[in-house]
Amino acid sequence: MTFSLFNSAAWQLVRQMDWIALSILLGLFCASIFCLAIIAFKYMLFKKHHQQLSTLAKRMKHIQTFNELIATIKEFKESIGGKLLSSNMQDLRLLVQQQQTVSSALNNANTDVLPAARLSSDDLKHLELCINQNIDTILLEEENYLPVLSASATTAPLVGLFGTIWGLIHAFIDISQEKSADIATVAPGMAEALIVTLAGLVVAIPAMVAHYYFSHKLRIFEFQLSEIGDKFMYCAKQSFK
After folding, report:
1. Between the CA of residue 186 and those of 9, 10, 159, what are the distances in Å?
2. Cα 172 to Cα 28: distance, rounded to the nearest angstrom
3. What is the DSSP string of 162-197?
4. What is the pLDDT of residue 118?
5. What share of the chain is helix, strand, coil (3-state, %, to 5)?
6. pTM of this structure
7. Residue 20 and residue 42: Cα distance in Å, rounded?
8. In whole angstroms, what is the distance from residue 233 CA to residue 16 CA?
9. With b meaning 16 or more CB within 10 Å and e meaning fewer, what string describes 145-173?
10. Rounded to whole angstroms, how far apart are CA atoms 159 and 23?
11. Which residues make Cβ contacts (< 8 Å) with residue 158, sequence separation at least 6?
12. Over the stretch 182-211, which tens digit does the pLDDT of each residue have?
């Protein structure tokens, strides 16, 4: 015995819906597809970021010289950790240039000579502030599309509830017109109304779970990026003190 969607009882109930309920159902279906696409994209992206950040954090622990730091930046320039280090290096260049000192080591990764520049405690505090701002900027960029998941998790049940109430109103109108309240009259209208609620929950539950999962991943990224930023700050202090 084969199952056919278009011959099922649920499909027959959908065909009986009015245009408002069908519009709500179609909107929820589109929202579900969009949320699933975001979840799949973010999962693959965050998995890649996690692997790159873990590798970079281990590498940063063994860096001893400024030249090793520059080589690491070049190696991981395509990752978000490398992006953070590159932004930090640009801020460091600006500080060095403002001090009007020699910064040849910043522009040449092959030299073993440490920069002759010296940064004051205020300069180092400013650099630390820039590092924290760079971390916040990266995390903000990684939060793209997550508000969509949060909004879908919040609004989808309400939209489904609206469709359910709309369907119940029509069900009660049909009951009053039939002047009968037996199960054969009540059940189809109730089932038709509850389908929209079910659709809203189908959208909301995965979106809510995914939003909490990705938010947790972002907190892990923040911790890893902070470790990388602290190591960069340590290298800067040792090289420019």
Report:
1. 15, 16, 23
2. 24
3. HHHHHHHHHHHHHHHHHT--SHHHHHHHHHHHHHHH
4. 73
5. 85, 0, 15
6. 0.79
7. 33
8. 66
9. bbeebbebbeebbebbebbbebbeebbee
10. 11
11. 200
12. 565 566 667 777 888 888 999 999 999 999
